[in-house]
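Sample intake sheet
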Amino acid sequence: MTNLKVGDKAPDFNALDQDGQPVRLADYQGKKLVLFFYPKDNTPTCTKEACNFRDNYEDLKQKGYEVLGVSIDSQKRHQNFIGKHQLPYRLISDPEREVIEAYGVWGYKKFMGREYDGIHRETFVIDEKGVLEKVITKVKSVEATAQVLEA
């Protein structure tokens, strides 16, 4: 789990989205950014979370938020995930885990009796100046947007 906390400067990143287009934290300067990390495209919980952001995307945009998802999935998998679920926001493909490790969301996990290293489902709300406004470490996939918007 991350060591980042509210008030910290958000780690900068320079990565590629699902279409191979560069995406940087600086691209979102002057906007609020919901940066969510999730384990894998097209798995039940990850799909619920991504679709929750999709279903509430216009409301988030009206409140000044942009949305950006991150996983280790390939650009092709991201393209398929976006197409299948009509996601209106970009997804970062981070197979080298540069963004994932910068935010401290890679580490030991236990799931269904298995122990392994993987991505922790966490969400960071970054303000217009690049400072962490909210760090959500216990994401509820079907309430992801509500968690972001809670005061």
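Comment: The chain has one domain: 14-149. The longest strand covers residues 65-71.
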